[in-house]
Amino acid sequence: MISERLSRLLVEQVGHELSAHQAYIGIALSFERQSLKGWAKLFHDQALEEAQHAAKIWTFLIDNEVEFELPAIAAAPTRYATARDAVQAALESELRVTGQFDTMAKTALTDGDHRSFQFLQWFIDEQVEEERTMRALLDLIDSGINLFQAEPLLEGLVG
Ligand SMILES: [Fe+2]
Ligand SMILES: [Fe+2]
Question: How far is the C-alpha of 64 from the C-alpha of 49, rounded, in Å?
């Protein structure tokens, strides 16, 4: 049995993960517009991961017999002024998600909801990687390298 508050927060998180999925598709498309196929692929792959995060959560909700509907998904831009702006938006989104998982973990502890607390640990670890990836991309951009020439380096930066 998972706590009422955690049930609500986890349903909201399904929406946040699906919104992140949509936001990353938007970033991928902004790179597609510039023929930066490698950058586009990286964000397509990140988008798929976000959809998998949503699925991990709804599976947990169903396993725990929580009733829910899928939340609304936020609109997402497909153009950014610069590549840096796009990646900065992604980093800010990851930091927001980190905060959401921290809030859920705190709530789970307060509610004595050990099952949810345990479930959340995977996501808390995952956020370290997600933030590192986006910071590494910003470092790459800030090195001044041409974005096309940077493409072969991208794979080594995603953790
Ligand atoms: Fe996620
Ligand atoms: Fe993420």
Answer: 23
